[in-house]
Specification:
329 residues, alpha+beta, elongated
């Protein structure tokens, strides 16, 4: 989340960044509320100063008019402070609607079609036969059981069976062990239930609340990705620069309602409500972020090669939504 001070000092930059990402940023309303809030705070401080001044005078005199004036000051201060609470709540809600700025190196584009490819590695090859889909092959080989997954849960749940279950477990162990052994990551095993502050801290809330599974009685959320608890591990802490980079690798079973994905890319072993993922998270100084991203991309290519993947799909692309590595190998 962008700080209020940054928005106050760079309103046009924030508006332009939101426009480039195809989003709206309520900058004008934020600045209006911020001005009203600061004026109210100034008035409160002035009244409190006057209150302290009159209190000192009242210690020497018990004048009834002075007592009544003091009560009036207290009531006015209380009223102003009570009015500040909804202003603060509205201001915080609006700040969560402001998107982060895209990196200056990112070219502007309306959608993924505007993403120029920076590099590709391990291009595919022509097959001498018509290829079958992953769900056709997986079902025929007994790796997936979609029907029984629906029977015990609902659509977009499944059973992994036999070699499919073993492969899933093996890939999780392979990715974690490799990053511990070769890339000096520290493994963490995170909670699968997260509070609202953690979900807000990584941007899942409020924007993607419809995609989250929530336990209403406890106001807790099933983890949508290990990135959320791991990124929040050091929230509200000050880390020494000498301790950086901190590198964690974590596995979690993830849960997403995929509320906006109906009818789009939902067949087979994609867009499931439950899936496993190994996540790598680095805590680094901002000036080293691009370098560390490149190290992540290189590491993913080596992982694919070590796993014997003949068609690794690891690439970094620029586009309208920012610089990002494609995660699925």
């Amino acid at each position: 989340m962008l700080s209020l001070n940054f928005i106050r000092e760079h309103p046009d930059l924030v508006k332009e960044g939101a426009r480039k990402k195809g989003e709206k940023a309520p900058v004008d309303e934020i600045l209006k509320l911020d001005t009203e809030r600061r004026e109210a705070l100034t008035k409160v401080e002035q009244l409190k100063a006057e209150q302290n001044k009159r209190s000192a005078a009242m210690a020497k005199s018990r004048d009834q008019a002075g007592i009544d004036a003091m009560r009036g000051l207290k009531d006015e201060i209380r009223g102003l402070e009570q009015n500040l609470a909804p202003t603060d709540a509205r201001l915080n809600a609006l700040l969560l609607e402001v998107p982060n700025l895209p990196d200056p190196s990112v070219p502007e584009g309306k959608d993924a079609s505007a993403n120029p490819t920076i590099r590709e590695w391990g291009l595919g090859k022509e097959l001498p036969f018509p290829p079958k889909s992953h769900y056709e092959l997986g079902t025929r080989l007994g790796l997936f059981d979609f029907e029984r997954g629906v029977k015990v849960a609902t659509s977009r749940f499944l059973f992994l069976k036999g070699a499919g279950a073993r492969l899933e477990r093996a890939l999780i162990n392979f990715m974690i062990d490799l990053h511990i052994r070769e890339h000096e990551y520290i493994e963490v095993f995170p909670p699968f239930l997260l509070n609202r502050a953690a979900m807000t801290g990584t941007g899942q809330l409020p924007k993607f609340e419809d995609d989250a599974f929530r336990i209403e009685s406890r106001d807790l959320f099933l983890v949508p990705t290990a990135e959320v608890p791991v990124t929040n591990m050091y929230r509200e802490e000050i880390l020494s620069a000498s301790a950086l980079p901190i590198k964690h690798v974590a596995w979690s079973t993830n849960f997403r309602s995929e509320a906006g994905a109906a009818g789009k890319d939902t067949r087979g072993y994609i867009r499931l409500h439950q899936f496993n993922k190994v996540e790598m998270v680095k805590f680094v100084e901002p000036e080293h972020s691009n370098e560390e991203l490149e190290l992540l991309v290189r590491g993913r290519r080596r992982c694919a090669a070590a796993a014997g993947d003949p068609l690794p799909r690891d690439r970094a692309v620029h586009g309208g939504h920012g610089l990002r590595p494609v995660e699925d190998l």
